[in-house]
């Protein structure tokens, strides 16, 4: 039989280990809006969630796995991390000077986070906006 101290350590390890079952539960719902400021195609809204303190990229992957209408690609930059390349088959282009920008509507204001999809940790009431734009 396990002593209470050993049992406490075992439970703590389950919670702290990356990929442990206790950390996989989706607890933070979020709305993801795909908008296009260049060609003005209709907006598309999706619902997904992230695990506790999970990154946006994880929620986007979860959405892509569960909803065939949402697809995205990204490239990995050695200095800046994941860089969103395309959403729903619409790709940014240096020739056309287009790109996907990350915006977050926090209810009373829309912000441009200083991190990307690989580092942004959504809050429960965030509306994530992936906006196709020109520079």
Structural account:
The structure is a single chain. 18% of the residues lie in helices and 39% in strands. The model is unreliable at 10-16 (pLDDT under 50). Strand 4 (81-87) and strand 5 form a beta hairpin. By secondary structure, it is α+β, with helices and mostly antiparallel strands. It has helices at 4-16, 56-66, and strands at 26-36, 44-51, 72-77, 81-87, 90-91, 98-105, 110-111, 127-134. The protein has one domain: Beta Complex (Ferric Hydroxamate Uptake Protein, Chain A, domain 1). It contains two helices and eight strands; from the N terminus they run αββαββββββ. A five-stranded mixed β-sheet has the order 2-1-8-6-7. The longest helix has 13 residues, at 4-16. Residues 66-133 form the Transcobalamin-like C-terminal domain. This is Transcobalamin-like C-terminal domain-containing protein.
Could you give the topology of this structure?
Layout: H1 4-16, E1 26-36, E2 44-51, H2 56-66, E3 72-77, E4 81-87, E5 90-91, E6 98-105, E7 110-111, E8 127-134
Parallel strand pairs: 1-8
Antiparallel strand pairs: 1-2, 3-4, 4-5, 6-7, 6-8
Describe the structure in brief:
With 135 residues, this protein is of the alpha+beta class. Helix content is 18%, strand content 39%.
Number of strands: 8
Give the strand line-up of the largest sheet.
2-1-8-6-7
Named CATH architecture: Beta Complex
Q: How would you describe the shape?
A: globular
Q: What profile does the largest beta sheet have?
A: 5 strands, mixed
State mean pLDDT (0 to 100 scale).
Answer: 87
- State Rg: 18 Å
Head-to-tail CA distance between termini: 64 Å
